[in-house]
Amino acid sequence: MPIWETDSVRLVCINDRVPPETPGLLSTACRKRGVEYLELDALAFDFDPARICEPGDMLFRPAVSGAAMRVEQFVTAPDTATFYRDSMGCFFPPTGSQMLFARQGIDVPRFVYLHHAGRDFIRHWVEQLGGFPVVAKVGGWSRGVGVVRLDSMAGLFSFVDYALANGHQPMLMSFIADAEHWRVVVVGERAVAAYRNTTDTDDFRTYAEDRPEAFVEAPPEAVRLACQAVAAERLEFGGVDVLMHPSGRGYVLESNFPCYFAHAQLVAGIDIAGAMVEHLQEKARRLTA
User: Fold this and answer.
1) pLDDT in tens, 6-17
2) Rounded to whole angstroms, what are the CA distances from 168 to 139, 140, 184?
């Protein structure tokens, strides 16, 4: 009998070229908890109505492709246990998170979106952001790709022209000097892992370290902001980047869903996959009570 026709408790995982350690950790967490693990290949999915989730099913999409998102939308049912706070949240992925956070009173670096290259407009906003250096960010990449520090008007003008010519509308934001970069992984309403990111020589961008000692308890303000950011996007899971200034003030850079949680688990042994499965299990029980 096909697995999608059984009555077993199961986690449906939607894959599309996700790093293999991610589904590997999830399947192991399921096996340890007596949960059946079903993986759907987004690129080979047949859109058979029999694949739609049954009551009590748990669902997670670690893949970020458009194909994976469409499969998620197809198989999700109103009583499916997901990391969306709304039962149909997969149909409304968050956009404009920086503006959302700002509207909800969550501290973020000052920012503006550059939809055109008007020189007076750009000069005005550099002044509003506190002057040079400023940071420009083009979306669509990860691990710091598309994030540029600019120290002069000449450099900024040329970057904006290039970005607009290639179909991007970059975000310009204040540079927070001497800040410490934290990644906080949130499951439900609690932080389950946190680690500091450090810079390489001659680079202002930060990177995750492969040292267990980098995984320490985050400052309470970073945890508070991370939990607020995930909740603001109406989610129950996310990897949040927070800058902590020496003054103690924190700023949310972004909240990622899905996020690459495997790093913390493989390096520091923190069972994030287990926390994720247990959270969905509890949610499934509530939905089918």
Assistant:
1) 445 899 999 999
2) 8, 10, 28
